Amino acid sequence: MLVPLSWLKEYVDLILPVEKLADRLSLAGMEVEEIKRQGDWWDPAALLVGQVLAVKQHPDADRLTLVKVDYGAGTEQVVTGAPNIFAYKDVEQLPVLKVAFARNGAVLIDAHSEQVPRPKKKLKASKIRGIPSNGMLCSERELGLSEEHEGILLLPEDAPVGMSLRDYLGNEVFEIGLTPDMARCLSMIGMAREVRALTNAALHLPLDETVISGGEAANYARVEIANPELCNRYIGLIIKDVTIGPAPKWMQEHLTLAGMRPINNVVDITNYVMLEWGQPLHAFDYDQLQARATRAGQPLPVITVRVARAGEKMTTLDAVERELDESMLMITDALGSIAVAGVMGGSETEVSAQTRTILLEAATFDNINNRRTSQRLKLHSEASQRFSRGIPAQLNPLAARRAAQLMVEYAGGTLVPGALDTYPVPQTRRVVYTTASNVYRLLGMEVSLETIAENLLRLDITSEVLSELPADAQGAPVFGLQSAPGEAVLRCVAPWHRLDIQVPADLAEEVARIIGYEDIATTLMSDALPPAHINDFQRVEEQIRDILTGCGLLETINYALTTPENHDKLARAELGSAEASERFITLLNPLNVNRRVMRRSLLVSALENAASNYRYSPRLANFELGRVYLPEKGDGKLPLEERRLSILLTGQRRLPSVHADPAGAEPYDFFDLKGVLEELCARLGLPSNSVEYVAQSSHPTFASTSAEIRIHGATQGVLGEIHPLILQAFALPAEARVYVADLAIAPLVKSGWQLQPMKPISIYQPVVEDLAFVVGEEVPSADVQTAMRQAGGTLLSTIELFDIYRGQPIPEGHKSLAYKLTYESLEGNLSETRVQDLRNRIIRRVASSVGGALRE
Question: Residue 473: what pLDDT?
């Protein structure tokens, strides 16, 4: 929110310097993100307040004048064509005309440039139609104050001649970042109340002198509220005989500094009061409402606050036709909707230059409904920002009277006596209780009840001390209240404008803000810290991250939300083959159509990520640790949230380099992925014989190369090459080779695996020999190695497959597997006879187990 200090000064005395005030507000929860200084680029010696002494006709130009200007240190002659100065040419007795005078050398904005933003230029002495011109009379555009350039800027008569414009016109504006609980500060008076409380300065609220008694307003319209739970109060005032025109200059300046564009006096007044009091207002063209009522056969307009009907549409002030649903609260008449309640008005009843009678609306709408309506329509406004955070119903008449008073004064209107005030849900008074011990518990500092009461009174929170908690004070007002037996209780009544005061913790927070968070002493815990418990899941996941990044992979964090269609693509199933509500956890209010269900597989996220990044880099080596959501495996109320690991490899195995790669630009293959998984399991401490990779004959997700991952005999994951049809479905090139793995994390979590005992190391010379076996093509190497280990026992320390051969003289349908075997003993050197016996036992076991014959 933008807070001009010149405007804020109208409601509260600013007794602190600007920087100290900004610090005080920031430490109290209203962070001043930036202090903007209007005119900070103006040269104080070259841009001054001047007074026009004489205006003469230019001898050689009909529309130019010669102006004599006193700027305090002398006088200069300036040639200008400003129409608001031309009107005073050759007038002997000039009125007091104070202007913004720029001396030669001043830097000004080039008002005639079409660039955005307009550049600055230095003013030089010149001759215009043969007459010297030393300086310039500046418009608002040349000073960067606004886009106004029809005439020069005329200053108030009391502006001191010779004072620098930076000192006279310069203004500081606070840009404040407000959290949702500080919605009361979305107004100048709200900020003034905070400054008063924090600095103990005097507050000056506008006088409320408007009288709306009487009943004539009822002769103009009626108001009905069909949904009182969504609209607590609705007030309408009638202002007739208005004249639409520009708002007064001071009001336009206030709005511009606060970040709003002036439009006309009526609209500007509603915006001004909204920024002043925090109450959004809306002005309807009453004559248009009456015309609509006449078309509907009604004598008077009947304003009805109700939810929209199915299929109902309306065109808002931004000229966009919007489709409504039955959850949206609308302002309607006999012919349909005329405004989206608390968001934006309709185009059919907007104020125009022909408007003569105004129906002024001030209301309180349900904040949650308003926020949802604004989000669904993708229509955010200053009004919805305030309504979505809560507006007190008691503010409605106060703001309406203030706006009516300004319309009478600056739009020439006449206020019709009486108000159309429908108030079905009166605002309740908020009473909250607290104790000194409860404040100490929350703040960690001793504060007496008297000090608490004094600080709260600065925020208009009145209080009284009670000897005990009243019997009827149970429930929300004492939620979280803790007190000692027999301790005095403080009964606090929040003012009508503080909707955020609800529980004792709110009172403690206000005490801390007024005292100052910086003055709360640092204290240590008086109790021992609870013992730390090792979370094996988190520990193993961190190990997995370290291991996989060490293997050259990058971690990705993907959305847990996706679409059923992408799951169907992964399974190569017909899209929409099963109801999403049965297979997935579905969001009731998704942000967009591509994020509407919770994923069932990490591979979907991996391929979505690859599709987004492949065009930038065809080499991807990624992994993700995340959850999948399986409703059918849950407890019936909540789904099973299983932690899983996915890995994706595609592109070249090695990164591009200026150095020649002897292997060439080799792509990743299935065994790169398998090697990463083997390294992961080994580094996590899983025994090598507990992990198996079993080839699959067919799988809808994969091409010919795929395998199950079995840990301790149970299938825990899968790895393989993605089928080309699936790549095409995810908008990836069909020729790309993409390898993925999906693995459950739970089987990898076991704290004992990191406590493996050291194996004894033999001090005797090992015996190394090579054996090659001819086996059927269908026999996996793992089965051959299992047979060799069973036969070799403890003497066979390592087995390494180093060659696979097919071709002559190997029979067709067979292959040759060559292994390097290492024998060693802890007891002594192995004799030749013992090695021969061991070799023969291995050969026999391979033959009997897998039908393998020793290759000669």
Answer: 67
